[in-house]
Design brief:
The protein contains 16 helices and 15 strands. By secondary structure, the chain is of the alpha/beta class. The chain folds into two domains: about 160 residues, 3-Layer(aba) Sandwich (Rossmann fold); about 210 residues, Aldolase class I (TIM Barrel). The strands form three sheets. The chain has a seven-stranded mixed sheet, sandwiched between helices. Helix 9 runs parallel beside helix 10 and helix 10 runs parallel beside helix 12. It starts with a strand and ends with a helix.
Length: about 425
């Protein structure tokens, strides 16, 4: 069978999206490509976002490939599946613009939680719920009803909801081969900022070391994909990193939901210390201490982003953070981290438990020691997150994204959105109808 994997050009005008708008490696497609190839299928991967291609140019590249399946994600990169744009404007437009007669398959967070609505809005034929790395290959020779997470339109156009979710055996993901991928176009270095001591870096890349998270924070949108914590094979990750270094990459951002968990983290850091590459990632400060922060320094860590969420134990408890450190100890470790790492960031979420004056004082104290503390970010009740169920008292249905988006707009229109969001977001209906 022939699979065409296409990462579209992503645009976010008018959206409440607060992820990074720059191109990143589409690791979900790159990983799936390796598994499809190992199953004997022909694969053509086109990253229109990285290569700045429009639908006409992609259609030309598809040319006579005559694919059986055309696969597109509904959100940019695994890195942002937990905080995707609510609208499905881009995949809908690209499916229509490409005009292929092949079976259209969508992967991503939208279909994982609302598969029927995702099919209806986009015109796709199949939605793969959960992690699609291995399940995409099964479309070629397995009845759809036997594939975990597969949802589809039958011969009469009726929606069929498959069972379960796709969950990947992380040990089965081989080294991603970048020999025919445009690594050199990836000039963006995720979460590296001017003035943080890393301006000399040339090429950035994203790597997945582990997937999932053992914590269950209420706001985190990872339950229906990338949930259970699993590590990849250590040798495969190192081989991947070495190939990227040979291509000129000297900064790697780990897309792990929570970097710092797992038995092989120390071994990885020891190996990274021997390589000419710097690193960045998201983590929890309570996974580290003074000794391991110094280990990060030796491993050339230049970007250390921590979810603190609330400056009070009550606020963190309300979000089910399961953090056993006091706020004073959190501050102490963040300030020590800044002695070892050029950029240390602490992220906060808006919560009624935190007094704005105390938040401002805590920010001032940390910033005085070089730690960047975000303004408290409005929390979006992503469908599929525990926060959604707590907010609306129901499981997500076909109107879940509309409900969450409307709630978010009404709640924060007067209070203000995050400074990295569009300050005049449109309604979801307007976003999805925009051309």
């Amino acid at each position: 069978m022939r699979y065409a994997l296409v990462n579209p050009q992503w645009t976010f005008g008018g959206s409440t999206y607060f992820g990074c708008p720059d191109p990143h490696f589409p690791l979900e497609l790159l990983s799936a490509r390796e598994m499809l190839r190992s199953s004997g299928h022909e694969v053509l991967l086109i990253d229109a976002f990285m290569e700045d291609l429009d639908p006409d140019e992609v259609r030309h590249r598809l040319g006579g490939f005559d694919e059986d399946f055309l696969v597109l994600p509904t959100a940019p990169s695994y890195l942002f599946w937990r905080c995707p744009q609510p609208e499905l404007r881009v995949p809908r437009q690209w499916i229509a613009a490409l005009g292929r007669s092949s079976t259209k398959v969508l992967i991503g967070p939208h279909g994982s939680v609302t598969p029927h609505a995702t099919l209806a809005k986009t015109g796709a034929d199949i939605v793969m719920r959960g992690e699609p790395d291995q399940t995409l290959a099964q479309l070629a020779d397995t009845p759809f009803e036997m594939i975990d997470g597969c949802c589809w339109r039958d011969d009469r156009g009726a929606f069929r909801l498959g069972h379960g979710l796709g969950v990947v055996d992380m040990k089965a993901i081989p080294r991603i081969d970048y020999s025919d991928y445009p690594v050199e176009r990836h000039r963006h270095r995720h979460h590296v900022f001017l003035g943080n001591g890393a301006d000399h870096l040339k090429l950035g890349a994203e790597v997945e070391f582990a997937r999932g998270c053992p914590y269950s924070c209420s706001f985190c949108n990872k339950t229906l994909f990338r949930n259970k914590f699993r590590e990849r094979t250590f040798s495969a990750v190192l081989a991947e990193i070495d190939q990227l270094i040979s291509r000129g990459v000297d900064y790697i951002y780990f897309i792990d939901e929570i970097f710092g968990v797992g038995k092989n983290v120390r071994a990885l850091l020891e190996q990274l210390a021997k390589r000419p590459v710097s690193i960045g990632f998201q983590t929890r400060i309570d996974l580290w201490n003074e000794d391991t922060l110094e280990m990060l320094q030796r491993a050339h860590c230049v970007s250390f982003e921590c979810g603190i969420e609330s400056i009070t134990e009550e606020g963190r408890e309300e979000m089910n953070k399961n953090c056993r450190l006091s706020t004073d100890r959190i501050a102490e470790l963040l300030m020590y981290a800044r002695q070892c790492i050029p950029w240390v960031q602490a992220n906060l979420i808006k919560t009624a438990k935190d007094d704005p004056a105390l938040v401002a004082a805590w920010q001032k104290r940390l910033k005085a020691h070089g730690v960047w503390v975000s303004e408290p970010v409005p929390m979006f009740p992503f469908p599929g997150s525990p926060e959604y169920v707590q907010t609306f008292g129901m499981a997500p249905d076909d109107q879940a994204w509309e409900r969450a988006h409307s709630f978010y707009l009404n709640l924060f229109a007067a209070k203000g959105y995050s400074d990295i969001q569009d300050q005049n977001p449109l309604s979801l209906a307007e976003l999805e109808c925009a051309s």
